[in-house]
From TrEMBL, chains A, B:
UniProt-recorded name of the protein: LacI family DNA-binding transcriptional regulator
Membrane-traversing stretches: none
Keyword set, alphabetical order: DNA-binding, Repressor, Transcription, Transcription regulation
Database matches in Pfam families: LacI (PF00356), Peripla_BP_3 (PF13377)
Coiled-coil regions listed: none
InterPro entries listed in its UniProt record: HTH_LacI, LacI/GalR-like_sensor, Lambda_DNA-bd_dom_sf, Peripla_BP_I
Organism phylogeny: Bacteria, Bacillati, Actinomycetota, Actinomycetes, Streptosporangiales
Length: 346, 346
DNA sequence: CTGAAAGCGCTAACAT
DNA sequence: ATGTTAGCGCTTTCAG
């Protein structure tokens, strides 16, 4: 069991008494080899613990056989689900996935992208956070890019797979208004450069269509971080004791709303109704279970990967692929019957 | 802006009027080059959008510059956190990470591992699910392996980073018993091949030390899946109306316990106390917030990566690295005062 | 400090 | 069906 360096195609060829091309044929499936020879090669390979090197092959074929995936944060439930979708698809297509998190930092995103280019990935999927310029530059060098979940303004030419966020928010607003709510607080995300305000816009638009006036004081935006979300929710709920419902445009915001409501001793949904975008696991666990709009994170990832690897041709034509959302009604929203002042009745 | 193939080191050399070795030196930081020449090279490179190819370099250096990470499921909050830790560390060490999910399937795990070897990763980190044999074989070919969060029986020689699960469970049991509980249900994970029963053993042991008899009927095991967990929890709680507390040995089990308790109209903690291992995000969101043992998932990932890449030397000596857990007391466990029958009082 | 040349492990013509 | 050969893009002696 000597410490010898890993066997190469040459070693196998020698051991099997054939040319290296034959070994290559056996392992790459190309061309044809006699059954007997193949067996001999396979045996020799097994004996030597031979593994074809993707580096050698990649150098020749100019493809690494892997793709890159850039998300803001792998611990975010939505992102994680999306990653799972990409992994699932990549697997069926025989590619591996280099994953990295940019944490909303454009510089970091650019670095990661750079690295992926160096690795000669066959393509990259991203939930972009950053500068359009970086992506435009990358698009020139890199094989191909697909955006998932969000797009960058000014980069409409990059193919993308999105959830129907506007539709989701609309259904939420309609539901809430249908329940009788008029003073609905909106907790949105401060433009992290991305998808700036499609949800907020949908909120305003739907309210308008329903002839419910928009109270500017009730729509607030927070950076996508726990503390910021909490601060925003607390600010809203404390400042305006008259809001009867809160629409959180993301699970972090929803979490904040739930926490703040509890802190303020507001009963849900008796005192305030809460609904959010993103049907994450805990929505069903909290009490009462939270009404939410489910966005197909996994499918988004899967489709994005498919688009990147399989439908190269069809790609990018006809605008972004938009996947439907689904309203999941649970117990966190109540009908507004009479006007009741907030003073805690316990 | 013609569609020309990506520039190589040769193109840059030509454009800069130098030898390719010089270009290499500039980009790999090796050797020394005159300031003027360096500038010329850099300029030419910029002009040509040159990116060194990791494939070419890797072939030469026999290192891909990346590591592999195999987890059971990227959407699991614990795994996700661990992945984040690995990414963080890998980043500081300048390596990228190929991530894949084995979903507890040994065959799939073996495939992934195989692929990673082909990619010539500089090492792999895994939450192993599979056959010790596969890993033993891999260890022979692959540069190096570090196990995280769990180990494989019979593979003690593989370095590993673990959480002090036994200690965590012990503190949970002590806490519960201290509260007066005697009939404590234990929801454990059925050996998925991995870490078989350290938690269950800790449960029994601690109970023993505390002179509380272990009721075999109260310790149940479930496969690590939502439905199985739910079934196990439901079975336990329905079969034994006299359990006063449930100790869930994982967040999936904890989730199941919460759901079942609600379904059965059991008040927490009045009718039954619930505590679990893994302090995931929703623990704080459910009502009442769940008491849990926090395991340092992110640190485990970070340390594992460090061990793999940095401490190659020191590695594997002195057994696994064990990181402490922390009991986070919230509101889901109550003191047992008097014996009260379960019949729902509402 | 810099260039020329020899591969790293593999694939793909091109021969045979 | 199988062997020979020429690189893929890069690092690395070895000279100069």
């Amino acid at each position: 069991m000597a410490e010898r360096r890993t066997a190469t195609i040459k070693d196998v060829a020698a051991a099997a008494g054939v040319g290296i091309a034959t070994v290559s044929r056996v392992f790459s499936g190309t061309g044809s080899v006699g059954a007997a020879t193949r067996e001999r090669v396979l045996a020799a390979a097994r004996e030597l613990d031979y593994r074809p090197s993707a580096l050698g092959r990649g150098l020749k074929t100019r493809r690494s056989g892997g793709i890159g995936l850039i998300v803001p944060d792998v611990t975010d439930p939505f992102c994680a689900e999306l990653v799972a979708g990409v992994l699932a698809c990549a697997r069926t297509l025989g590619e591996h996935v280099i994953v990295d998190a940019a944490h909303g930092d454009p510089a970091r995103e650019a670095e990661i992208l750079d690295r992926l280019v160096e690795q000669r990935v066959d393509g990259v999927i991203a939930l972009p956070a950053g500068r359009a310029a970086d992506w435009r530059a990358a698009a020139r060098v890199c094989s191909s890019v697909v955006f998932a979940d969000r797009v960058l303004p000014g980069l409409e030419e990059v193919p993308s797979v999105l959830a129907d966020d506007a539709g989701g928010v609309r259904s939420l607003v309609e539901y809430l208004v249908g329940l009788g709510h008029r003073r609905i607080g909106f907790l949105g995300a401060a433009a992290a450069g991305a998808a700036p305000g499609v949800r907020e816009r949908a909120f305003r638009d739907t309210l308008g269509q329903l002839r419910v006036p928009v109270d500017e004081d009730l729509v607030v935006a927070a950076r996508p971080a726990r503390d910021a979300a909490y601060a925003a929710a607390a600010g809203l709920l404390q400042r305006r004791a008259d809001v009867t419902a809160v629409l959180a445009a993301g699970h972090l915001l929803g979490e904040a709303a739930v926490l703040v409501a509890r802190e303020l001793d507001l009963r849900v949904p008796a005192d305030v109704s809460i609904a959010m975008v993103d049907d994450v696991a805990w929505a069903e666990l909290c009490d009462p279970p939270l009404t939410a709009v489910a966005r197909p994170a996994r499918d988004i990832g899967y489709r994005a990967c498919e688009l990147l690897l399989r439908d190269r041709a069809r790609r990018g034509r006809g605008g972004p692929v938009v996947l439907p959302t689904e309203l999941v009604v649970r117990g966190s929203c109540g009908a507004l019957r009479a006007a009741r002042p907030r003073p805690g009745v316990r």
